[in-house]
Design brief:
Distance between the termini: 61 Å
Radius of gyration: 29 Å
Largest sheet: 2 strands, antiparallel
Strand order of the largest sheet: 1-2
Structural class: mainly alpha
Helix content: over 70%
Shape: globular
Length: about 900
């Protein structure tokens, strides 16, 4: 435990008092939309989902900024950061009164959200004043500033009724600005920051401050806080509207009833800190989750009418909860959530005394994001199901997951003989304990004996678990390519432009996520990241299953779900980077081709399986009712999403239980970021966009393009063949690049793709001619085949290129360090190029849509693709395959051998 500079009791009281009052004021502003949002909703006439987004938007800013505000507080001191944060929030609150449209309200709501960032500033500031044995109580008292939500619920409704919602904003802005000035004048700089400044030592780097975020324990604490704080914020925002809609009370009564929950979920946080100091945070978390399960079960049960036949006739009764019992149960839920909030933050200064800002910032950010995400989910669930209590059912499921994870972690740690200094807390892992059976400490696949005796079996096990996970990711990523073609038939009035947007957006978000996913495996480990990224596919799969059942579902909901399907696209970057670490150079091309090729097969599997799955009620009553198509047939469109859920769960479990992490593969973002200085990283981004970008873009746009160009042909039963051909050619052609050289194979691939595109252009231009469809279809099959070959060959080039470049770029490294650097940069480049190339999934369908909208047909887009392939051809020849190219000697030598 780090020693803290001595602080007098009066200074401690002053710091705690000022911080708590300031946090109360910030929290009152942060939740202002829970009251004035009701008036704005009526003023604009927005839907439940749009209302959920409005009240949740401030929570987004307050959550995301917590991580960086925690870092800044450690670097620049809480007094300055807290003051500036309050002044900027007050300004945003005042500007809210000038908004007149829904987008303007959302924009100002982002600024108001800065109020939520005050929490981590205060936690870092207050913790530095108190000794470890009193930090739980002190942070609990500070956290009671959540009562600001109750202040808004109590006071704001009366001001709103008397003077309008603008007056609420004026008063809240003025009060917060006054608090900012008061805090700056009377607060003192914290002891740790003053000592750091006097010592003249450099402040810790961002990399050092973020180092603890690699610990899985931090993410478990974040999940706790996602429920106890995120759930609290979500309910604080959602409950007033819930009370008005369900119990038909006025806004003042709704505010008072909702304030009862906010009070219990805030004031008792101080008591939770005391209990955590006395009984241990672990015990308090068991209390929190256990009682929350019971209370949420009561709240989530929808009002139901029962009729029982007796000898005296029908006996009817209802399970509906009246207003008073509802408020009492909600008050009790708030009480246990407040204990959980204090217990969660009791852990942080104990385990991470030197990183309270970064760890506390991440935990606070994840918790705050719960306050942003959950109201949106509440609104979507209400729009889709029509059941008001669905919000409590969602929280019930969240608590079940958190409780299971906590209990399993505690059971695992109980087997360790070592205890931490603070006996009532979780066990702090030693360096030796961190080396689990799943972490491979000594991994050298280039050693032939090691590879034959041990390495190959482990590498193949990880590969064959990775492939189905990646296959499911591609299936979910591209599922809209089939779904959009059937939406008009079941009553959705979306035009062609909107349908192309739905087909293209997963590509946009998936490509963007790949940029971040590219660097995740070396930071968190392949096993953890594969499990987490695979499990994330449940969100769009389940969401789509509900959305497509109701033709009145807003287009905005479909846009959000399409973006969330991009989670599947992001998985490819991390999956390829992970598998690249396991195999030696001589087998890397084949292994990556299998992982990517069979993973790409998910697109074809989806395009084959979904049209079959939507024709039968395979989930029975659990899956919902069918929709009637315009031709009279019954379709279960929800199966397009639900069909993947059990497979995703199984794949997630397999990844967690069967995969490994490689210790040498761990590296920070800064170590990987060196690839941005490598010229060949950017050149390979262009080439891989030409191959994989084409494959995934054609996969996304092929079904809809075929339907629009050949409306008389029932082609949806055939479109799965394109991705199938592309995936199998990738999986089966890796040996070509290993034998003849990736650059040479890539060169001739682009030649073939140009010829195939010319064929597609010809048959579209003559689509009325006999056999035009089959000519079009054949040329596209050739395109898919060639993209698969090019996908494998371009990835084979990357480690070969870096094997030649690293000895010249960093000559000071010894042979072992060179090997490690080559592997690290190759994996990062593989992942990053896959991220950039994935934008093809957005640009190709969007290019079709734009071309059709502007010129009346897709030919302009296809000519553009042809020109791009010519550029790729020139780059491949000039830099790699020509006599003066980087790989000429390597590839000619391998062929002669």
């Amino acid at each position: 435990m780090a020693s803290l500079p001595a602080a007098s009791r009066p200074d401690q009281v002053q710091a705690l008092s000022l911080s708590t009052i300031a946090f109360t004021a910030c929290f009152a502003v942060w939740t202002i939309f829970s009251i004035i949002g009701i008036a704005i909703k009526e003023e604009l006439g927005i839907s439940e989902s749009e209302f959920g987004l409005l009240i949740a938007t401030p929570v987004l800013t307050g959550s995301v900024t917590r991580l960086i505000l925690g870092i800044w507080t450690e670097r620049y001191g809480g007094r300055l950061v807290f003051t500036l944060q309050m002044l900027l929030t007050a300004l945003s609150t005042w500007l809210l009164t000038f908004a007149s449209t829904y987008p303007m309200y959302l924009l100002t709501a982002l600024g108001i959200g800065l109020a939520g960032g005050s929490f981590i500033i205060g936690v870092t500031y207050v913790a530095s004043w108190f000794e470890p044995e009193r930090q739980g109580t002190a942070l609990g008292i500070f956290g009671a500033g959540n009562v600001g939500a109750a202040v808004t619920k109590f006071v704001a409704p009366f001001i709103l009724v008397a003077f309008g919602w603008h007056m609420v904003a004026y008063i809240w802005a003025a009060a917060l600005a006054l608090m900012a000035v008061t805090f700056f004048v009377f607060a003192k700089d914290e002891p740790q920051w003053v000592a750091q400044k006097k010592s003249g030592k450099p402040v810790p780097s961002f990399a050092e401050q973020f180092k603890p975020l690699e610990d899985i324990r931090v993410w478990r604490f974040s999940l706790y806080y996602f429920f106890v704080f995120g759930g609290f914020v979500a309910l604080a925002l959602w409950t007033p509207n819930y009370l008005i809609e369900v119990y038909e009370v006025d806004v003042r009564t709704a505010g008072i009833c909702a304030a009862a929950f906010s009070l219990s979920a805030s004031l008792f946080r101080a008591y939770g800190g005391h209990l955590s100091d006395r009984h241990g945070a672990r015990t308090i978390m068991y209390w929190t989750f256990g009682f929350s399960l019971l209370l949420l079960l009561m709240l989530s049960y929808p009002p139901t009418q029962y009729i029982i036949t007796t000898k005296n006739g029908p006996l009817s009764f209802s399970t509906q909860m009246d207003l008073l019992p509802f408020v009492v149960v909600l008050f009790l839920l708030g009480f246990f959530m407040s204990l959980g909030k204090a217990a969660t933050y009791k852990h942080i200064p104990v385990y991470y005394p030197k990183h309270i800002g970064s760890v506390g910032g991440l935990v606070g950010m994840i918790g705050g994001l719960g306050g942003f995400i959950l109201p949106i989910i509440f609104g979507i669930a209400l729009d889709l199901t029509g059941i008001y209590t669905s919000c409590f059912a969602i929280l019930f499921a969240l608590v079940v997951f958190a409780l299971i994870w906590m209990h399993l972690s505690i059971q695992a740690e109980a087997k360790r003989p070592e205890q931490v200094e603070d006996a009532e807390e979780d066990l702090r892992p030693t360096e030796e304990e961190a080396k689990k059976d799943r972490v491979l400490e000594d991994w050298n696949p280039e050693d032939k004996e090691f590879w034959e005796t041990r390495g190959r079996a482990i590498a193949r096990q990880n590969l064959w678990i990775s492939i189905p996970a990646l296959l499911l990711a591609f299936a979910v990523w591209m599922v809209w390519s089939v779904v959009v073609a059937r939406l008009p038939a079941i009553g959705f009035n979306f035009n062609s432009a909107q349908l192309f947007w739905l087909a293209a957006l997963p590509g946009l978000s998936g490509a963007t996520l790949r940029i971040f996913y590219s660097f995740m495996v070396p930071i968190f480990g392949g096993r953890l990241w594969t499990a987490v990224s695979t499990a994330s596919l449940l969100v769009p799969s389940i969401g789509m299953g509900y959305a497509v059942q109701d033709p009145t579902t807003p287009f905005l909901i479909f846009l959000v779900l399409a973006l969330l399907c991009g989670l599947g696209g992001g998985n490819f970057a991390s999956s390829m980077a992970n598998i690249a670490f396991f195999f030696p150079k001589k087998e890397k091309g084949h292994a990556l081709a299998l992982n990517a090729g069979l993973g790409n097969l998910g697109v074809s599997v989806m395009q084959f399986l979904v049209p079959l799955a939507i024709t039968a009620g395979i989930f029975g009553a659990l899956g919902g009712s069918p929709q009637q198509a315009d031709d009279g047939t019954l379709l279960w469109m929800q199966n397009a999403g639900f069909i993947w859920v059990p497979l995703i769960i199984a794949s997630t479990a397999a990844a967690w239980l069967g995969m490994n992490d490689i210790a040498d593969a761990k590296s920070s973002f800064a170590e990987q970021a060196v690839i941005f200085q490598r010229k060949h990283n950017w050149l390979m981004c262009i080439l891989y966009t030409g191959t994989f970008g084409s494959f995934i873009g054609y996969s996304a746009g092929f079904p809809l393009l075929t339907r629009l160009q050949f409306p008389d042909v029932n082609a949806l039963q055939l479109v799965f063949l394109g991705p199938l051909v592309g995936a199998l050619s990738r999986a089966g052609s890796g040996w070509l690049a290993d034998k003849y050289g990736g650059a040479r194979v890539t060169f001739w691939t682009f030649v073939g793709m140009m010829l195939a595109v010319l064929g597609v252009i010809y048959f579209i231009a003559n689509n009325e001619a006999a056999g035009a469809f089959w000519g079009f279809f054949t040329c596209f099959m050739a395109l898919f085949f060639l993209t698969g070959v090019g996908n494998a060959s371009t990835f084979q080039m990357i480690p070969v290129i870096m094997g030649k470049e690293i000895p010249h770029l960093i000559p000071s490294l010894n042979s072992e360090e060179q090997k490690r650097q080559i592997d690290r940069e190759s994996a990062a480049i593989i992942a990053f190029t896959s991220a950039i190339a994935a934008y093809g999934a957005f640009f190709i369908p969007k290019a079709y849509g734009t071309s059709i909208e502007v010129t009346g047909g897709p030919l302009a887009a296809l000519w553009g693709f042809l020109i791009f392939y010519l550029i790729c051809l020139v780059i491949t020849w000039r830099f790699y395959s020509s006599r003066y190219g980087l790989l000429y000697d390597v590839e000619r030598g391998s062929c002669n051998n």
